[in-house]
Design goal:
Layout: E1 2-7, E2 10-15, E3 21-22, H1 34-43, H2 51-54, E4 60-64, H3 73-86, E5 94-98, H4 108-115, E6 124-127, E7 136-141, E8 147-151, H5 152-156, E9 159-165, E10 168-169, E11 173-174, H6 188-196, H7 213-225, E12 229-235, E13 241-247, H8 251-263, E14 267-268, E15 272-278, H9 288-298, E16 302-311, H10 332-341, H11 345-359, E17 361-365, H12 370-375, E18 379-381, H13 384-392, E19 401-404, E20 413-414
Parallel strand pairs: 3-19, 4-5, 4-9, 5-6, 9-12, 14-20, 15-16, 15-19, 16-17, 17-18
Antiparallel strand pairs: 1-2, 7-8, 10-11, 12-13
């Protein structure tokens, strides 16, 4: 049997035995007219008056995601700008703030692709810089005492609209919603302290919102900013917009999380010897740092001592420069101790990968240098065939194989387990 899996902007063919199980979700059709669906949402939102009734006189800041998130801005953002124009907001009074947290910046061409020709050059576009203290404002503290430093342009705007995409997230439960604020447009110290909570709380996990302190602190930060509206998308397996959740920044997001939990949690029977997964292609596999979310999503259904083969192009390399350094000369206990003293988000990602690599073997099919992949506690391969050859070295003569074409989006659950907390 042969199946094509997403790899960057292309696909790669994977040849497996006919008995392999391909774990797919029921097809989720795309919206026929996303722009029309947006207009309906703006006028009949979730948990909020229509956007026109929420707008105050003055500037509008639209907080957006960066290039590592698939949001499909060119499809709906022009319609939002047109709507604002009709309500008396001029393009000159609208700013897009790219909430990139601690991610890297964008070239002008990348920004043009991110938003599309109809938006690029029409309104002001600026990138948030979490390290630029001169343009950060403290707006209060979270329930855990974390001082919330936010982008000055957003804080001073009369109206803030949050945008993004909703997917499972390894420690905040879900992406989207309040994450546009923290970490999106937060200061470095604020987002560092927020993410460090994941070191000490068992409630920070995929699909978990209730009692999740990372999520709770993100909610606190968003309340301090008090956005007037939210637009979040959910994309289907083909990367098309399947749903728009529009309205109150918290209520609309929570409804979207419920939809994702119901749709993207396939049930599986027990654990497999070999699991093959795509990180879902570009931009989910833009670098290793982002691709490892697929490992968080899928690795729990690999048996102890089994193998996971991940297809992730990683065209932009490893991501944060320090990521690889956290794999040098330390065991799990030492890494955790260092993180307690000098927390680093890439360091935490490395810790999670080390934990998984102690339980299962991970074969990475990517464009990365093989020596660097080995350094990161994984087995390198350049092609799926090469990856399968490596995987078979650690498998019995007869083994079960499951394939997840959308490892970056799906969170499989064992049959009989609640979908509420994958």
């Amino acid at each position: 049997m042969e199946i094509e899996l997403a790899y960057g902007r292309e696909t790669r063919k994977v040849r497996v035995e006919d008995k392999a199980l391909i774990v797919r979700m029921p097809p989720v059709p795309p919206l026929n007219e996303p722009a029309l669906s947006l207009l309906e949402g703006l006028n009949q939102p979730i948990g909020s008056p229509p956007l026109k009734d929420c707008l105050k006189k003055g500037r509008v800041v639209v907080v957006t995601s960066d290039k590592t998130r698939l949001v499909r801005y060119p499809i709906f953002l022009p319609s939002l700008l047109d709507y604002l124009n009709k309500e008396g907001v001029r393009d000159s009074d609208i700013s897009l703030v790219i909430g990139r947290g601690n991610h890297g910046g964008h070239s002008p061409d990348e920004i043009r692709v991110l938003f599309g020709e109809d938006v690029f050059g029409r309104v002001e576009i600026m990138e948030h810089d979490c390290h630029d203290r001169a343009h950060l404002v403290e707006v209060g503290k979270t329930r855990y005492g974390n001082p919330v430093l936010l982008n000055q342009r957003a804080v001073e705007a009369e109206n803030v609209i949050l945008t993004g995409a909703i997917k499972f997230h390894p420690y905040s439960g879900f992406s989207g919603g309040r994450k546009a604020v923290l970490p999106g447009i937060s200061g470095f110290e604020t987002l560092q302290r927020n993410h460090k909570i994941a070191l000490s709380s068992s409630r920070c996990g995929l699909g978990v919102l209730d009692g999740n302190p990372v999520h709770e602190e993100m909610l606190d930060a968003a309340r301090l900013l008090d956005p007037c509206f939210l637009i979040n998308v959910v994309c289907n397996e083909s990367g098309q917009i399947a749903r728009l959740f529009v309205g109150h920044w918290q209520k609309a997001h929570e409804e979207g999380c419920g939809f994702v939990r119901e749709v993207f949690c396939p049930e599986v029977e027990g654990q497999a010897d070999l699991v093959i997964a795509s990180a879902s292609g570009y931009p989910d596999d833009i670098n290793l740092y982002q691709s490892l979310k697929a490992v968080d999503n899928i690795s729990p259904v690999v048996r102890d001592g089994g193998v996971m083969m991940l297809l992730a192009e990683c065209r932009d390399g490893f991501g944060p420069e320090e990521l690889l350094e956290w794999f040098d000369g330390e065991d799990l206990v030492e890494t955790r101790a260092r993180l307690e003293k000098e927390f680093s988000i890439p360091g935490y990602v490395a810790l999670c990968l080390k934990k998984t690599a102690e339980r299962i073997r991970i074969v990475l099919v990517s464009s990365l240098a093989h020596a660097s992949v080995r350094r990161a506690a994984m087995i390198p391969a350049s092609t799926p065939d090469e990856g399968l050859q490596e995987a078979r070295k650690y498998l019995p003569s007869r083994f079960s194989t499951w394939i997840f074409p959308q490892g970056g989006s799906h969170v499989p659950v064992l049959k009989g387990k609640s979908h509420q907390e994958p």
